[in-house]
Structure formats: C-alpha cells, structure tokens
Amino acid sequence: MDADIKMAAAAVAEADAAFARLSAVRAAIARVIFGQEAAVEAALVTLLSGGHGLIVGVPGLAKTKLVETLAVVLGLSERRIQFTPDLMPSDILGSEVLDQAADGSRSFRFIRGPVFAQLVMADEINRASPRTQSALLQAMQEHHVTVAGVRHDLPAPFHVLATQNPLEQEGTYPLPEAQLDRFLLEIDLDYPDRDTERRILIETTGSEEATAERLLADGELQDLQALVRRMPVGERIVEAILDLVRGARPGADLVPDAARDIAWGPGPRAAQSLMLAVRARALLTGRYAPSLDDVAALAVPVLKHRMALTFEARARRRAVAEVIGLILAKVI
C-alpha cells in the first residue's frame, strides 16, 4: 500500500511539474502570438500527443509565425518548405547525386531534404499538386522515408505542422484523404477581435518587436509526450470516444439523421488521435485525467477533416461541424 501511495504521489508531482513547464511555454508563446489562445492550445495538444497538425486560415493570421514560435520555444530544429505548384517530391525528401572520387570510382550520395527536421513547416501545403503533397505520407506515419530503395530515419521527435489556405481560395488543391487522416488535429485560425488587432498594430509596427525564447531543453518534449501516454483514462471517456467516432460513420444508428448525411467517416486512427488529444489537453490545463469536457472540446478538431458529407447534405448547406455537434450531443 505504501508503495502504491508513493507511486501515486510521484505521478502527481510529475504532472504538476509538467503543468508548470507548459504554463511557462504558453506564456512565452503569448508574448509573440496575440489573441489566438485556442489555436495555440490546439497546436500544443498536437505536439504533446506526438502528432501532426493542419493549420487552416486565410492569409495574414500568423499561421507561419505560430509554427516558427513553437519551434523556438520548444527547442526543436525547424525547416520550412514553401509549397508551390512546381514543387517536386525530391525537393521535400532529398535526392541522390553521383559523386566521383579521385581514383575515378563513382558512387551515389544521398542529400537530405528539408523533411529531416524535428518540426517541419509545410507552408501553404495545398498549393502543391497532390503528387507532391503525398511525398509526406510515409514520413508522417512511419517517421522515415525511402529513397531509391534505401530507408532514411527522421529525427525524433518528428512533427509536421502544415498551413493551409481555405480550399475556396484561388490556386489550391484539396489534400488527399489519406494525408488528411494523418493530421491529428485541424487547427482553425479566425480573425482577431478588435482589442487584439489593436494590440497587434501597436506592438508589431514599432522599432522593437517581441521575439520567441527557447524554454524546453533537448528531450524535454519527448518526456512530456511519454507522460501524456501514461495518463489514466476513465472507462466513461473511452466509451464516449468510441461512441463519437463510430457514430460519425455512414449508416451508424447512434444519430440516424446525422449518419444519412455522411458520405465517409473517420477510421480507428481518429479514435487513437482523440484518445491522445484528451490526455494532452488535460495535462495542458493542469488536470491528472481527461474529462468529457475534453472530448467535447476536441471532437470537431479531430473529426472535421476526417469526414465528408453527401452531395444532398451539402446542397442543404449542412456543415461537418454541425453533424459532429449532433452526434456529440447524443454522446455527452
């Protein structure tokens, strides 16, 4: 019994220390990124869960600035890839070049592409062709790439934070469904309120501007990710996650009216993502276990990009978030 008490006390102390570190991280980010608290929280949940994030918003909402700030504060090596229509897969992964030695012998040498970083910013990912977008599929799922039949491991931790303009913007391509499923969360950025925009005007157009400072040491983010996976999850939360994900598929009988509007829905990876995300959000907000509030808060970011509505539902101007809300109301 004493051993169990000591283990529980140690786990609580570790969670408290992690919360203190994460509070400092959020404060450091807030000195650079103004008025996007929900987006910052979602991005941190994504990284604490060990996943990848898709940041969606119109130009000028600090999507790129957010990723750069996260990399600095969390102490991650960062590379930016600007996606354009003429970008090729080799521009992301790297390529082999033929070297000739002094004795005349020749051999191939692999030159690593920008994907070999701990935090890869895929800027405006939907401006590249689907073929080029798919170059990230293996990297995002398996954390290694294969070039000319040879495996090359990526750094650890490895995360992709992709920024995307809304699909109705000119010159964009929709992401393949298989790639969308590899993003743990879709992080939506909205316009700031008036007070926040006033602060942006004053603090970013003067002679001095706040810069990000590193807070986490090497390996510290991985320790936090390991802690997230050790957090207990109650049976009620597990059942809620299962009900929500399974209810968001075509033909589900949980909410028949909603299911009839779904063309295709989330697979098991969505349930895994939600399971990790609710744990990460609990830790980020100073709690020792996730609650139903976490499930409710993360349902749309986890499921929205993993679902599509039927033509009839879209003709009635029904939104994916609305359908998820109907299912969530039945589950919670």
From TrEMBL:
Belongs to the MoxR family. Signal peptide: none annotated. This is AAA family ATPase. Residues 49-193 form the AAA+ ATPase domain. Keywords: ATP-binding, Nucleotide-binding. InterPro entries: AAA+_ATPase, ATPase_AAA-3, CbbQ/NirQ/NorQ/GpvN, ChlI/MoxR_AAA_lid, P-loop_NTPase. GO terms for molecular function: ATP binding; ATP hydrolysis activity.
